[in-house]
Write a structure and sequence with these properties.
This protein has 14 helices and no strands. By secondary structure, it is an all-alpha fold. The N and C termini lie far apart (53 Å).
Length: 232
Amino acid sequence: MKENIINNLRVLSDNKYRDFNAKLIPNINNVIGVRIPALRKYAKELYNTKDFDINTFIAIKEKPCMEFTMLQGFVIGLKKSSKEEFFNDIKNFVPLIDNWAVCDTFCASLKLTKKYMPETFEFLKPYLKSSNTYELRFGVVMLLTYYITDDYIDHVLSILTGLAHNDYYAQMGIAWALSICYVKYFDKTHAAMSDSNLQKAIQIKTVRKVIESLRPPKEQKEFLRQYIKQLT
């Protein structure tokens, strides 16, 4: 199974995209260059193949290429799982995450979260306390993908503004999440961030992401330009 899938991934690969993508994902040397839409399409084809053993596939721990790991994450997202199976599959996959691209595409694939919102929120809490870069980023990106809503925003802000980490990719995950909070709940987010002891590096990254976004109005961006001067 594994070798056949790897061969199919190589057929889908694009050398120019590989070289471009590899520059965006430092410290990863197993990128072969399959574009995400093609990878998602292949995941659906595998999932719908009659004799495809899903559980055997997602249980493979080797990382022959980054796209193979991504593919496993996409297939997990396609499974019509019970709540227990859903959480178990996630637990088994998270240790395979070793870069932001696998992390973020995996989170975006977990649509079943919407069926188990309260349970998944509780499930994420240990990851949000982790010192491991990609365990923490996984928890944070799950929050920004599914929980920046009226029902959860206060909980999300309380968690995000209490996080701390020195790794760039963990900090950027937190800043990304807070920037989306700013876009959707500007006043509430600014109050929460201003009243917190959040690392200055994360605050600066957050404000810069909001200013760079096309979504906030000009007056909010100008307010943040003045605010960032107090931070730098």
